[in-house]
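Annotated sample (chain length 283).
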Amino acid sequence: MHPRNTLNELTGREWIKATKSWLVCDSRRYRRNRDTELHPARYPEELVAEFLSFFTKQGDWVLDPFCGSGATLVACVEDKRRGVGIEISARYAEMAQSRLAKLDDGDKAIVVHGDARAAGDPPTWQEMDGLPVGEDGLPQFDFIMTSPPYFNMLRTSRGGVESTQKRRAKQGLDTDYGDEAGNLEGIHDYEEFVEELGGIFDGCARLLRPSKYMVIVAQNVRVPEGYVRPLAWDLARRVGETLSFQGERIWCQNSKRLGIWGYPTTFVPNYHHHYCLIFRKGQ
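Output written by the structure step:
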């Protein structure tokens, strides 16, 4: 490792590989986990590990304001980072805590049952010991990684095609995030949704140390009216008002099933990629 490398623990050769603008996460562990998780839209621990290795060192503090089933926290424990997750759903917060309880050192990660809207408010953290605290009384994190809801995508009909969501419904698994008070899926106006997310990430930016990074995993969303809402690009614009947008890496899902959308008259893409949007806080 270069003696002036204050960002991570990579060699120059490892650094180069980690800057490629796309990556595939299709490991055996992810394929096994995704069939057993109740959470309807999780991302793999391997994806988190990819970014942890570049943007953190061992012992660093990591925040996930949309914790879900705890993939970020599990990856943090496995890679010797300290993870904190905020999750509005009591059901998923309990799921994340249960997963951590099965890991060695799982007690070093923290699940907060709360609303990400309050992440930048001191009362959210008042009863939490051990976090590194800045002059304003707020915790200071070395890295933030998360994946917010993709607007109302999980509640949008896929037509007559046997989609993943329809298969999950037949199996009695969750197909959306539920009806918890404050659930962002309840926002029906797209511009309002983007602004609400922007406000949440403004609050998260207060918790990020100077010169450190935040990664938001997002996807553009096709709506029933027949066009695509550029959610990832709109988030890049909105969050870029607070943090400096540094570019993206594209997570490709090479093993995801294909659906015959739009056949035989209309082009409808199979979305098998997500944008990992990378932002940096100023000095």
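Annotation: The chain has a mean pLDDT of 87.
Annotation: The beta strands are 22-24, 61-64, 82-87, 110-113, 141-146, 208-218, 221-222, 228-229, 244-252, 273-280.
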